[in-house]
Amino acid sequence: MDVRRQRLQTARLYLVCEDRPDEFLDAALDGGVDIVQLRIKDGTDAEVLAAAGRFARACRRHGALFILNDRPDLVRAAAADGVHVGQEDLSPANAREIVGDDLLVGLSTHSSEQVDAADAAQVDYIGVGPVHATPTKPGRPAVGLELVRYAASSAPVPFFAIGGISPANAAAVRGAGGRRIAVVRALTDAADPRGTAAELKRLIGDDSRAEAAVGSS
Question: How many structural domains compose the chain?
Answer without folding.
Answer: 1
